[in-house]
Amino acid sequence: MERRRAILDAAEALLAEQGYEAATLKAIGERAGIPTASMYHYFPDRHQVDAELLQHHVQQLDAIVNGVLEDPGPSTLEGIADALVDAVLDYFRGHRSCTELWFAGRNETLDALVRGFDEAQAERLWLLLFERNLIAADTPRHVAQIAFEVANRFFDIAFRRSPDGDDVTIDEGRRMLTAYFRTYAPAEA
């Protein structure tokens, strides 16, 4: 377990410091002080290291987003969108390894983790917006899923433009999400 943790810590540090391309299995092993041949005893390939790290980040983000969605404070579309964007943005800014895996290191396994996160959170968001009467009752559930896909894309652009996430791109993404959800607002009586 100690060596496995050392491998994951080394991978996380390399991803954060040098980016996805630099975090090869060989480089991870060197950083962890484990010969490359021995690395395969703990992880069959680099994708398994990436998947375990991203799974940890997904669990952390899941708890953070759940906290935002359970907070009774934000009661407008803008407030909820801002709270969600701010929470994810803060996490991404504090965990560069996560943004590297989320955006740069995409493969089938990582895509499935991100998609699973998006689907679960989109369902929660749809329910929240419906319960707070911020979207019409006949709003299709996939609307929230589309919003999460769009948010992924603007975060991707923001973190490609700047390692800290370009604020202009983030602000445009906020506007886009809020405007999109407004098209599903309940009709005025």
UniProtKB/TrEMBL annotation:
Keywords: DNA-binding, Transcription, Transcription regulation. Residues 1-61 form the HTH tetR-type domain. Pfam families: TetR_C_15, TetR_N. Residues 24-43 bind DNA. It comes from the Bacteria. One of its GO terms (molecular function) is DNA-binding transcription factor activity. Gene3D superfamilies: Tetracycline Repressor, domain 2. InterPro entries: Homeodomain-like_sf (IPR009057), HTH-type_TetR-like_transc_reg (IPR050109), HTH_TetR (IPR001647), TetR_C_15 (IPR041669). This is TetR/AcrR family transcriptional regulator.
